[in-house]
Structure formats: structure tokens, C-alpha cells
Amino acid sequence: MKTRYKLVQSVFWVTLILEAFLFGPAYALDLGLASGSYDVTVRLELPHLDTGAATKVTRLCVEAAGENLTLGLGVLSDNNPLAKCPHTKINSSDSGALGFDIVCPGTNRGQASATFDLRGDRFEGRITMKMGGKNMTMTEVQSGHRVGPCPAAAQELSK
């Protein structure tokens, strides 16, 4: 009887570990943000400047399913080299928090740290950036809300 119990217990643990390994990333992507098209207000804040913060509104297609662990979120300000750099140290929580670092390759590289609060059909984010080779830090503040499904053309491009 003890041998049968140990066998059942072993099968249980192996199944649990395999399930976490194989399906863990899919569960991790359920951060509470719906897939779809989002209008995002982007404001660039520079330290010690009270006025003149550049603001724009852009549209972003968020894919909450798949292997993109950052859901397509990242730097959205114009002419920013960090927009094309890889995301690292991606972490998320069940409470709808998403964080990651952005690090460009090479010497004098730019780097950033992003935090997002994801809430169903809206999100708030802050990306603190230090541009490479410069003693300048700025913060990109994002506020997005879902406006509908992604356009068919955007969905085809993301595949």
C-alpha cells in the first residue's frame, strides 16, 4: 500500500512540475490586460522642467496572448533609440503589475526601467530612461485605454 501511495505521490509531483514548466508562460501572460487596440497618451518628463512636457497620443496593438511577455508595451516617444532595444528582467504579478528593463547593446548604451499597472481595459506606465553617453535622465509616462480590437493588418504584421 505504501508503494502505491509513493507512486501516486511521485506521479502527482512530476505532473505538477511538467504543467508549470510547459504551461507556466501562458498563465504568466494573463496579467489582467485585454488584447486589443489602445489609445495611449505619452508624455515625456524631463527633470527640473515644469513646463513644456511633450505629449502625444498614439495607437498601440496589445497582444495579451502568445509569447510576448511585455504584451507589446515599451518606449513610445518619437526618435528614441530605446524603442528598438531588447527587454530584459521581465517580471509580473497576479495584481496586474508588469516590470522590465530595457538595455541597448554596445558601449555608452542607453538603459531604462519600466513599470506598468495593468487594469482590464486600461493601463498606466512609467519608463525611466538614461540615454547612452549622456548625463540625462527622463521619464516617459503612459496612460492607455482600450478602444476596440486590433486592426486586421496589425494582427497579420504581429504574426
Q: What secondary-structure arrangement, pairings included, does this model have?
A:
Blueprint: H1 2-28, E1 36-45, E2 54-62, E3 87-92, E4 97-103, E5 111-119, E6 122-130, E7 137-148, H2 152-158
Antiparallel strand pairs: 1-2, 1-7, 3-4, 4-5, 5-6, 6-7
Describe the structure.
The protein is α+β, with helices and mostly antiparallel strands and 159 residues long. The protein contains 2 helices and 7 strands. It has helices at 2-28, 152-158; strands at residues 36-45, 54-62, 87-92, 97-103, 111-119, 122-130, 137-148. A 7-stranded antiparallel sheet has the order 2-1-7-6-5-4-3, with no helix packed on it. Strand 5 (111-119) and strand 6 (122-130) form a beta hairpin.
Short description:
The chain is of the alpha+beta class. Helices cover 21% and strands 39% of the residues.
Strand content: 35-45%
**Total count of helical runs of at least 4 residues:** 2
SSE run? HEEEEEEEH
Shape label: globular
Throw out a few tags for this protein:
2 helices; DUF3617; DUF3617 family protein; 7 strands; 39% strand; 159 residues; 7-stranded antiparallel beta sheet; alpha+beta; disordered C terminus
